[in-house]
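Final report, closing paragraph on structural work. Over the funding period we assembled a curated collection of sequence-structure pairs, and we close with a single example.
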Amino acid sequence: MDTAKDQVVPASAATPAGASAGDPRPAGSAPGTSTGLAAAGDFAALSVPHLSPILGRYYERSWSHGEGHTLFDSSGRGFLDFACGIATTSLGHHHPAVTAAIKDQADKLLHICNALGYLEPVAQLATLLADACPDPLDTVFFCNSGAEAIEAALKLARRVTGRPGIVAFRGAFHGRTFGAASITSSSINYRQGYEPLLPSVYLTPFPNVYRYFGDDEEAATAGAMAALRTLLSHEIPPTSVAAIIIEPIQGEGGFNPAPASFLRQLRALCDENGIMLILDEVQSGVARTGKMWAFEHAGIVPDVVCVAKALANGMPLGAIVSRRELQERWGVGAHGTTFGGNPVCCAAGVAVMRTIEEQGLVSNAAARGAELLAGLKALMAKDDRIGDVRGPGLMVGVELVRDRVTREPDGETCEALVQACADQGLLVLNCGTHHSVVRFLPPIDVTSAEIATGIDLFAAALRALPRATA
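Its predicted structure, as stored:
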């Protein structure tokens, strides 16, 4: 793994404009000073004195800029970006339409807070987002992030139903704020030391087809539904449950798709008992899976859908979408935000939504995703360290195992593989409760040639990686 300590920076990258490599450094730019570290592209060392160490990082690299689907480090080396800022820069870097929209809106107005009135890009994006959702989802509340979208959805559910209970699924990741962390269980580290968390939250098993049900979707659906009905019979009655919240494809938890049959039965159970169904599409939404929304693969419509990440291609923006009647019952002033629906972020969102429509990127994600899945499954056939390849569209997980028969997860090899991919020039991330899944999140406008290159780089990294000893 490349580190700030051993990065080699070309003289052109470390030399001020108009100076030659042999000229004296400007005042204050000696090695070890903040100016000198910045000039050398050593952003890691520059960050150490004052940036909090709490944030976990996949890489210790210093990044300079991005262009298209390539991310460049401070030494000028380019990497094929199949991480996309964790499914965020889905149109890649420096996208012309998005960049132009941001610059144009920044020249007009940066911020006034939507509580003061109405703004054109905010109204435009709300219209486009509602149009992209199936009926009756037609009303949008904007916030700043995925976690804020989750918080808003939980507050809406409790306030509107008058019920306290929230049911979520084990292995889920919904965010790190208190409400979101209360329904998150993809890692104990996200919960440990923060108790007491939100009360009246109940966790039930997710229908993890590969890990617990031997690839049998019918068994996974039956098992998870049985566990949920047991919960509603013995721990909290359905009449006390405000909402059930689920990721149609668990993200941080391991790229585990919920069977379509399970989501349909979940929808029916909620309808039978007056429970709101909340779909967390923060990572899976906005064309990522070859549908605009992952829940469309199951042919259902939730009561609330939570959106963020790719919505503004990297600008901080989240939203919830529901039918209007629910948000009218929520009540004026029942929830709010200072920065949510920022006009610059919404202008970026408008450009994203229009680009998806104009360039047919939902279909592109489906087609390129099929190529990615096929290529990775071909690698699986040759290397028994890969236990499973799964996921629709451009949300594909590759699970590393110590043994295909026992399916024992191999987080150590997975984490080493992520770094080996970066050494080859490919950026991917790992996830899963055992850190054993490599997640592929290419841009939704990725080309066939880039998919082929990504598969080749991944294969080279896997070949170069020594097998773990017993």
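The longest helix spans residues 361-382. The CA atoms of residues 115 and 406 lie 56 Å apart. We thank the funder for supporting this effort.
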